[in-house]
Amino acid sequence: MRPATEALIAIDIQYDFCPGGALAVTGGDEIIPEVNALMDSFQVRVLTQDWHPANHSSFAANHPGAAPFSVVDMPYGPQVLWPVHCVQGTSGAAFHAGLRTAPADLILRKGFRASIDSYSAFFENDQSTPTGLEGYLRTRGVSHVTLVGLATDFCVAYSAIDAARLGFGVTVIESACRAIDLDGSLEAQREAMTDAGVVLA
Ligand code: VGL
Ligand code: ZN
Questions:
Q1: Which residues of 146-156 are buried (b: 16+ CB within 10 A; e: fewer)?
Q2: Which atom of ligand 1 has the smallest separation from the CA of 151?
Q3: Which of 65, 89, 102, 192 has the greatest number of CB atoms lying within 10 Å of its CB?
Q4: What are the distances in angstroms from CA 157 to CA 43, 59, 64, 97, 152?
Q5: Where is the Isochorismatase-like domain (predicted)?
Q6: What pLDDT is stored for residue 51 in this prediction?
């Protein structure tokens, strides 16, 4: 058993990121047995859930003429436009039924503001609006986080880098993650994570 200073954070293991989903990540569902097993090794367990309103600004469908996976400039910087995914209350936004959700201490929803996306579990994409997760972890005495989930090169990487910047020790268990890999984003984010001091295990 890991000490109570270590948290497991499982990112966005939802139907829309699994095969057949609206923003399917190849092999996304393959990680579930490993994530389920890891929960038994941690005393602090957090699940995140991508949770967008239907009018979310990260959806290509809400930008007339824009193609999914194109990039637009938002007031907070460049933003990839995604297929409509993880709309609040839909079946695609639900956790995969194979994921053990009962052991979770906290379920953190993110991306609920229409005007801004939130890849990271700590800050929205303006890199300044907090989700509250930092306070939750610190007030529970957590100093190290282990990240797993979907997708390696977006929500896992952004969360890992933010956690490292906040001063947490950070490990990403790559075998319990799967990537979208858009235009080399997996290699770029692996390097960015390593540069930020994240340990890729
Ligand atoms: C994610 C793109 C859009 C993720 C969420 O969970 O990695 N990626 N929304
Ligand atoms: Zn999203």
A1: bbbbbbbbbbb
A2: 7
A3: 192
A4: 23, 20, 29, 24, 6
A5: 7-196
A6: 99
On whether the pTM is more than 0.95, the answer is: yes
C-beta atoms surrounding 20 within 10 Å:
10
Nearest CA-CA partner of 179 in 39, 65, 31, 58: 31
- Give pLDDT, residue 196: 98
C-alpha span between 107 and 95 (Å, rounded): 11
Helix axes 185-195, 157-165, angle to 10 degrees: 10
Cβ atoms of 14 and 49 within 8 Å: the answer is yes
Q: What is the pLDDT at residue 24?
A: 98
The first and second tokens of residue 58, run together, are 């990260």
Q: Are 60 and 83 in contact (CB under 8 A)?
A: yes
What is the separation of C-alpha 62 from the centre of its chain, rounded to a whole number of angstroms?
Answer: 22
ipTM, 2 dp? 0.99
| Active-site amino acid positions | 12, 110, 155
Query: Which among 162, 160, 165, 143 is positioned nearest to 201, based on CA atoms?
Result: 160
